[in-house]
């Protein structure tokens, strides 16, 4: 019992000492400056695919530069740019065993402007049976690298109508997934799809503190800097901007804890700071 009590006291003491050191690292005024900037109306609530999120990314990148963080892979910027693809179906025609398919029983996930698929296209065929976890199986196919035909049992009709959302947002590397709601265990399916494609740029913000002896090993600190943006339907006191002060504060603390004066720079392993969209 005495050993347990001693261990608890030691843990509390160590936590207290660590907290005191952390408070010396985190400068309140500087943290407030960063938090207020990120949650200001100028950032427009930092919703993805808006000018506000671009301003936030550039601000965080400038702070990374200011505190002396290195760029990932010796790049030219702290911004790790990528794009999401938004689709809008122009036309979709499908045949099942030689008959026109019911549009409500067919869905296609693809980032291609046009898609022509038939039995000779080499798609993997997967059956989502009654009792299976529909959402899990669909996500597995969408996240996979192979083009897939999903034969979905009609017991999943309610979820089939809701997910995946038609006209969703996907990465440019997204494989093609065709979903058919059917009681059959096999079917001859052909699809002709045309859709509008919109590329929507985004960026993660990445900074590196190189390790002293194990530079190729990383400890990652991450957080997301996007928020809800502007919503005029649920205004409070005529304010339509969701400023996201809590999110802004988490980013501010990550920045302050890894400033140029922080003792973390003596770490044997490298530290990677990521402020990302999909945190």
Any overview of this molecule?
This protein is of the alpha+beta class and 279 residues long. The protein is 29% helix and 32% strand. The strands form 3 sheets. Strands 1, 2, 4, 7, 9, 10 and 13 form a 7-stranded mixed β-sheet that branches. A hairpin with a 2-residue loop joins strand 1 (79-96) and strand 2. The longest helix has 24 residues, at 2-25.
Please give a handful of descriptors for the protein shown.
7-stranded mixed beta sheet; 6 helices; elongated; 279 residues; 13 strands; 4-stranded mixed beta sheet; alpha+beta
Q: Could you say which overall geometry the principal axes of the C-alpha atoms support?
A: elongated
Q: Structural class of the secondary elements?
A: alpha+beta
Secondary-structure element pattern, one letter each: HHHEEEEEHEHEEEEEEHE
* Count of individual helical segments: 6
Secondary structure tally: strands: 13
List low-pLDDT spans.
Answer: 1-22, 260-264
Instruction: Kindly report how far apart the N and C termini lie.
Output: 43 Å
- Sheet-strand content, in percent, reads 25-35%
Radius of gyration: 25 Å
What is the helix content?
A: 25-40%
Averaged pLDDT: 83
Largest sheet: 7 strands, mixed
Please give a quick description of this structure.
With about 280 residues, this protein is of the alpha+beta class. Helix content is about 30%, strand content about 30%.
Strand and helix map with partners:
Elements: H1 2-25, H2 28-38, H3 51-66, E1 79-96, E2 99-100, E3 106-109, E4 114-117, E5 124-128, H4 134-143, E6 148-152, H5 157-162, E7 169-171, E8 177-181, E9 189-209, E10 214-224, E11 229-230, E12 241-242, H6 245-257, E13 269-276
Parallel strand pairs: 5-6, 6-8, 10-13
Antiparallel strand pairs: 1-2, 1-7, 1-9, 3-8, 4-9, 9-13, 11-12
Helix pairs in contact: 2-6
């Amino acid at each position: 019992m005495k050993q347990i009590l001693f261990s608890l006291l030691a843990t509390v003491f160590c936590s207290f000492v660590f907290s005191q050191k952390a408070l010396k690292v985190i400068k309140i005024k500087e943290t407030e400056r960063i938090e207020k900037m990120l949650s200001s109306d100028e950032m427009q609530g930092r919703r993805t695919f808006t000018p506000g999120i671009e301003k936030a990314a550039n601000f965080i990148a400038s702070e990374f530069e200011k505190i002396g963080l290195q760029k990932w892979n010796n790049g030219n910027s702290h911004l790790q740019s990528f794009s999401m693809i938004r689709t809008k179906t122009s036309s979709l025609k499908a045949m099942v065993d030689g008959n026109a398919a019911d549009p409500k029983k067919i869905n296609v996930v693809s980032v291609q402007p046009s898609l022509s698929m038939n039995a000779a296209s080499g798609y993997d065929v997967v059956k989502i049976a009654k009792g299976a976890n529909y959402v899990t199986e669909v996500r597995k196919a969408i996240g996979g690298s192979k083009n897939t035909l999903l034969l979905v049992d009609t017991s999943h009709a309610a979820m089939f109508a809701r997910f995946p959302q038609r006209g969703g947002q996907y990465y440019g590397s997204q494989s093609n997934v065709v979903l058919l709601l059917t009681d059959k265990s096999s079917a001859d399916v052909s699809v002709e799809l045309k859709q509008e494609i919109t590329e929507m740029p985004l960026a993660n913000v990445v900074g590196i503190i190189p390790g002293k002896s194990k530079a190729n090993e990383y400890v990652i600190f991450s957080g997301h800097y996007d928020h809800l943006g502007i919503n005029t339907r649920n205004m409070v006191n005529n304010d339509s901007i969701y400023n996201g002060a809590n999110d802004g504060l988490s980013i501010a603390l990550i920045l302050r804890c890894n400033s140029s004066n922080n003792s973390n720079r003596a770490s044997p392993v490298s530290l990677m700071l990521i402020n990302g969209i999909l945190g």
